[in-house]
Amino acid sequence: MKSSDYPMISVAEAWRRIEAQLRPLPPTPHILAGAAGLVLAADVVAAEDIPPVPTATMDGYAVVAGDAQPTRTILAQQAAGSADAPPVTPGTAVRIMTGAPLPAGADAVIPFEETTETDGMVTVAGSVSPGLNLRPPASDIGAGQTVLAAGSRIGPPEIGLLASLGQTTVMVHPRPLVAILSTGEELVPPEVTPASGQIRDSNSLALAAAVTEAGCTALPLGTVPDREPALRSAILDGLARADGLLTSGGVSMGVKDLVKPLLAELGTVHFGRVAQKPGKPLTFASVGGKPVFGLPGFPVSSLVCFENLVRPALRLLAGHIALWRPEVPVRLTHDIRRDRERLEFVRATVDAIDGVLWATPTGAQASSRLASLVGSDALLRVEAGPDYAYAGDEVIAILTNRPERASR
Questions:
Q1: pTM above 0.85, yes or no
Q2: What is the pLDDT of residues 29-38, one digit of tens each?
Q3: Does 2.40.340.10 match the CATH number of domain 327-399?
Q4: Phi then psi for 156, rounded to 5 degrees?
Q5: Which of 97, 106, 173, 384 lies 20 to 30 Å (CA to CA) from residue 14?
Q6: Which of 227, 290, 293, 283 has its CA nearest to residue 258?
Q7: What angle do CA 24, 146, 318 make, to 5 degrees?
Q8: Which CATH number does 55-135 carry?
Q9: How many Å apart are CA 398 and CA 312, to the nearest integer?
Q10: How many CB atoms lie under 10 A from the CB of residue 404?
């Protein structure tokens, strides 16, 4: 099929079609030490109480709270990591350190600064209430409690919590491996001085960085010329080696734009045009049960398409529940001409001034001008229309420097 044979669909419809085809990658066991950034595939249920026994939350003396005697005999000292102190009874106390288990019979800890110690005796100033300066059993976690739910992203706190439960292996969705392929006769590596008619391939490195930043593993395959046998072989090779494939270039309507016809032959093209600017020729297909995104060749188009539709798709593959960057209303500092037919994603910076968020476009918005993305922290959703979005008008900003949420 030609590019023009594909109906132009909305961005929302494009996502619905992507979401309908994708599921998180099958769970695998993973050692805890290397699990940061991955997503739990199963609930984690505590097998024991934490702490298992009452422990001191301050340095002081373990005592019987109801003991009316002001002066008590110090029987021993208990440090964290030991549990050999004798039982505490009325008239006695045990010197205890933070984190140490409470000796039998004691039900409170009085801090050092509220006592006086002389010749093996401690005098307590005032009354002591039961439970004072104690961490009760199961006060952090109770046996049988679900401490982390499936879909939770594993970060430093989760690593620490799982380690405290004795979990050395966790079931997770693996980090997706994403192959990246740039198409075009004109492309040369960045280190090569281009000859007449050639350009340096920036998309491979930029997309690899975007894939890595999304929490996936990038597999750059380099460049391939616009020739059907070579392109077919490269696409099949990438899909054989990875969980999905990104191509850049070759999805428009030129005689050498071969990606769409090849994907239609090898699998199913779910859409081939999207009513967005930049990125109208964005293509999504399934080949052998794996997703393929045909991104436009212009660098800005490629990265904007990645941010809005590919990044959430890859996060879905990785098992994340939080797929969407935060969206907030902002006011424009400058007029923006609307596209008559397509939703436009305008690169911008957002600043808070007197409690109001203001968005400033980053200059010329040409699809080839990577500088429009450098330093930007938002994409403005400027709806299609016959006129302008004027300075002071409110639009929605997608905050591209903020972590994802479960909903928009």
A1: yes
A2: 999 999 999 9
A3: yes
A4: -55, -45
A5: 173
A6: 227
A7: 15
A8: 2.170.190.11
A9: 13
A10: 18
